[in-house]
Fold this sequence. Notes:
Blueprint: E1 2-5, H1 11-21, E2 25-30, E3 63-66, H2 73-84, E4 87-94, E5 97-100, H3 109-123
Antiparallel strand pairs: 1-3, 2-4, 4-5
Amino acid sequence: MRLSIYGERLITDVQNQFASVYPYLKIEFFKNVDFSRNIYPRQKQVAHALQLKDAYTSKKGEGDLLIEDVMTVSDLESTFRDRFGLAAQVFRRSGNIWLETTITNGWTLKQQNDHGREITISLRPDSRNEIM
């Protein structure tokens, strides 16, 4: 997948494009975070309706970001930070909740997405066992 990263692009557009390939993962963007401590408080999360430029920690550049299944979460987040000046955090779906992937940052995007699918599907109630 090729993501176009430029200041006027809506965050929700980036998120939707990413989710079209990785439906059990999502990207959130944050403002004014401490990169050295890898802390992304929810209150610093940038609203989805805003543009990417509203999430810049430092404007570094614009362009296309090639995302492949073998890319790790850590590599993706580092690329957003180092190449585009964006604080991005990947979350994995687990049933009805979204979990930070900080412990599994070394996993590839495909591994993360597959794991999210497995967990989410296994947590769904089996309709054959429902009591009528």
